[in-house]
Specification:
Length: about 160
């Protein structure tokens, strides 16, 4: 992250280029997620027990300051937990009245079902489309969901 930040900040300084980045590494044996969230929309962990958790942001955006530091934080996924990350086109989707879909609607639009993520993503997209109604889509809608099924400890 430091190398990428320094490269963007020094090579593209004149263009005011920057990036919002969520970068995570999941240890599939333990469920430990090590991550850096540099200004990106915070992912949401939908816990298997029905609660939700929003991991903390670690620092500002990538590419503005060459010497910026990016703290690595951790979160632990338990068997059956789903982590959902998305572009700002999801929470900032607007309806005809100009209201945004928002984080609260993301939290209540759907719940993970079964071991797959496809139905979760389809339900979320349908909720966004229903909210938006006839209003034009104003930004990309990019979503990623991962369900942690835990490592098989038997073999």
């Amino acid at each position: 992250m430091h190398t990428t930040n320094r490269y963007i900040a020094t090579t593209h300084a004149g263009s005011s280029m920057f990036a919002l980045v969520f970068f995570g590494l999941l240890d599939t044996q333990t469920g430990e997620l090590s991550y850096v969230n540099a200004g990106h929309e915070a992912p949401i962990i939908f816990r298997n027990n029905g609660t939700t958790e929003i991991p903390a942001n670690t620092r500002g955006v990538v590419g503005l300051f060459p010497a910026a530091n990016f703290e690595v934080l951790t979160a632990t996924l338990n068997k059956g937990d789903l982590i959902f990350t998305y572009s700002d086109g999801v929470n900032e989707a607007k309806n005809a009245e100009g209201h945004q879909f928002g984080e609260e609607r993301i939290l209540t639009a759907t719940t993970p079902k079964g071991d797959g993520v496809e139905s979760f993503l389809c339900d979320m997209l349908n909720a966004i489309r229903q909210f938006r109604g006839e209003a034009d889509q104003s930004d990309d809608i990019t979503m990623l969901a991962l369900k942690y099924l835990a490592a098989d400890q038997t073999g």
